[in-house]
Amino acid sequence: MPSTLALSLPAKGAPFTPTTIQRRPLRENDVRIDIRFCGVCHTDLHFGHDDWGGTLFPLVPGHEITGVVSEVGEAVTEFEVGDRVGVGCMVNSCGECAPCASGEEQYCTEGFVKTYSAVDHDGTVTAGGYSQSIVVVDRFVLRIPDELELAGAAPLLCAGVTVYSPLRHWHAGPGMKVGVLGMGGLGHLGVKIAAAMGAEVTLLGRSAEKKNDALSFGAARFVNTRESAELAAFAGHFDLIVNTVPARLDQDAYLGLLGLGGTLVNVGAPGDPVASYNVFSLLGARRSIAGSSIGGIGETQDMLDFCAKHQITSEIEVISADRVPEAWENLSGARYRYVIDIATLGTP
Ligand code: NAP
Ligand code: ZN
């Protein structure tokens, strides 16, 4: 079986170890990809720390993958060697349930197969993009538009689509007031994408030093969530708030910022339950509290094409593979996404 170099966590709490892993021989619908860049998503840390339980070790994280096709199976018609492609959080799904049939594979009733730490339909355990190559069935491979460079496009594959999907679902656009809560990898793309959709965007964040960046990404304003008086001034203001924070939050405080019929959609996914809410925070203005998971494959391609049209890529700091442990220690220091240059992994 073809082998490839990877960065692996042998067990919870163990340090990253360069290792060799096997990728399957190509099946007729498979695409082999030489990985060039992989984003470091906060979800990688949740898995590495086993925050959600059930992580399969050894773990090769990484689901913000861009690269170049190096080989295709004989039945592949959509991709050829040399194509610039990406892979996000999913590498398989049942393909038959109602969500799969409607292009929402992320809500597959059998559970989609995650790019890492999952058992694929053939019984093998998936391994992600902190590695030099990956083999993925063609219907889970995305095309990277020519306008987007591969490093800055990598975080779009998870962070980008995770904010794009709820913004589309709740119809972000002109006349709509959107709050983005937390400005890390997801949040900064949320600001850029919601602004490009034409919404009035407010960054709700605890880090005042990010204010000018938020404005440059298209936010109309920055509101400091540590300042209760600043928050209070926006009571009832928003139609939609996208919460990207990976920690427990006072949901009532943010529900109170929504106007009539507004929605607080949680995409941040802390391990412990998000704080409970008071039902009166909802019924006084017919508000909703919701969640959203990444996006479907078709929607991910739409998002990439949208980003190409609006010249949106992630703000990135490219790091070498040996700096991954340091990046994990200091993820909130990223402006705004660490992206691993996979060429620095070495030679097999
Ligand atoms: P990130 O880059 O670490 O950014 C998170 C941001 O949230 C920080 O930059 C900070 O922004 C704010 N924040 C962090 N800790 C906080 C705290 N204790 N209290 C208040 N604010 C805090 O993380 P990310 O990669 O964007 O991921 C964010 C979350 O989304 C993670 O839980 C991840 O697992 C989840 N996620 C979910 C999906 C999905 O499908 N739903 C997909 C991908 C990721 P400020 O400094 O601006 O406050
Ligand atoms: Zn992710």
UniProtKB/TrEMBL annotation:
Q: Does the keyword Oxidoreductase apply?
A: yes
Q: Which reactions appear under catalytic activity for this entry?
A: a primary alcohol + NADP(+) = an aldehyde + NADPH + H(+)
Does the keyword field hold Transcription regulation? no
Q: Recorded E.C. number(s)? A: 1.1.1.2
Q: Which SMART domains match?
A: PKS_ER
Name the Pfam families on file: ADH_N (PF08240), ADH_zinc_N (PF00107)
Q: Which CDD domains match?
A: CAD1
GO molecular function list: alcohol dehydrogenase (NADP+) activity; zinc ion binding
- Domain Enoyl reductase (ER), residue spans: 13-340
Keyword entries, A-Z: Metal-binding, Oxidoreductase, Zinc
What cofactor requirement does the entry state? Zn(2+)
Top EC class, one word: oxidoreductase
Q: Which family does it belong to?
A: Belongs to the zinc-containing alcohol dehydrogenase family.
Q: Which PANTHER family match?
A: ALDEHYDE REDUCTASE (PTHR42683)
The name of this protein is: alcohol dehydrogenase (NADP(+))
Q: What organism does the UniProt record list as the source?
A: Streptomyces alboniger
